[in-house]
Design brief:
Blueprint (H helix, E strand, L loop, with lengths): L1 E5 L2 E6 L3 H4 L4 E5 L3 H13 L5 E5 L3 H9 L3 E11 L5 E6 L2 E3 L2 E3 L6 H13 L5 E15 L2 E13 L14 E7 L1 H7 L5 H14 L1
Length: 206
C-alpha cells in the first residue's frame, strides 16, 4: 500500500480491499480507468470531510503513475539520525517537530541528498549513512500548483560531539537531540509521514 498524506488526511493506493477495512474513516473505490482516478483524487483534494480515500486497483504501478500525473512530482530525501546513546536528531519548523529533509538537486543521488540536507539543516557533519528506511508521500499546494513529494528516508549514525545548529533561513528554529523519553512525548504531535518513518525504522530494527 502507498500512503499519500494531504495535511492530516490520507489518500491510500492499494491492491487489496482489506487495507481499508480497519479504517473507520475509509471511503473505498475500485478504479480501472484514468478518468476515475482523476475524478476521485480531485474530489478528495476539495472535500475536507473525506478523511481517508482508498483507491483499489489490480495494477498498482499504473495506479501510482496515474496519481503522479495529476501533480507536479518532486523528489526529496532526509535522515533519521541517532547517537550511539540512542538520542534522535529532530528539528522544529512550522510549529511542529520534524526530521531534516529537503529536495533532491540535479545529478545528486538520494543518499547524497539525505546527507547534505541533514548537514545543512542541523549544522553537523561526519554522519554515517546506514540504510534506506522507507519512502513517504505527501501533497501540498504552492500558490496555484499542487505538488506531490516523495521523500526517501535513511538511517544514520552520528558519533561526534558538535551541538546542532538550526538553519534559520529555512524556517528551522531548533535542532535538538531527543532522548527516548522526550521522543515518546513528541511523536503523537508529528506529521503522519514522520510518524510512519519512526514506525518503519522500528520494524527494521526488530
Amino acid at each position: 500500500m502507498v500512503k499519500i498524506f494531504f495535511n492530516d488526511r490520507l489518500l491510500a493506493l492499494s491492491g487489496q480491499w482489506a487495507d481499508g477495512a480497519a479504517d473507520a474513516n475509509a471511503i473505498m473505490y475500485k478504479v480501472t480507468k484514468k478518468p476515475d482516478i482523476v475524478a476521485l483524487v480531485t474530489a478528495f483534494l476539495d472535500a475536507e470531510q473525506w478523511r481517508a480515500l482508498y483507491l483499489i486497483s489490480d495494477d498498482m504501478p499504473a495506479l501510482l503513475e496515474g496519481v503522479k500525473s495529476l501533480f507536479i512530482y518532486v523528489e526529496a530525501a532526509g535522515g533519521l539520525v541517532r547517537k550511539p546513546t540512542g538520542e534522535v536528531l529532530m528539528i522544529y519548523r512550522n510549529n511542529r517537530w520534524d526530521l531534516p529533509k529537503g529536495h533532491r538537486e540535479a545529478n545528486e543521488s538520494l543518499e547524497e541528498t539525505a546527507l547534505r540536507e541533514v548537514e545543512e539543516e542541523c549544522g553537523i557533519s561526519g554522519l554515517q549513512l546506514l540504510h534506506r528506511i522507507t519512502a513517504t508521500y505527501h501533497i501540498y499546494r504552492d500558490n496555484e500548483n499542487a505538488i506531490l513529494k516523495r521523500t526517501d528516508w535513511y538511517a544514520m549514525n552520528y558519533a561526534g560531539a558538535a551541538t546542532p545548529a538550526p538553519q534559520i533561513i529555512e524556517g528551522i528554529t531548533h535542532a535538538e537531540w531527543k532522548p527516548a523519553e522526550e521522543l515518546q512525548a513528541v511523536l503523537p504531535e508529528v506529521y503522519a509521514t514522520i510518524y510512519d518513518v519512526f514506525c518503519a525504522d522500528s520494524s527494521s530494527r526488530q
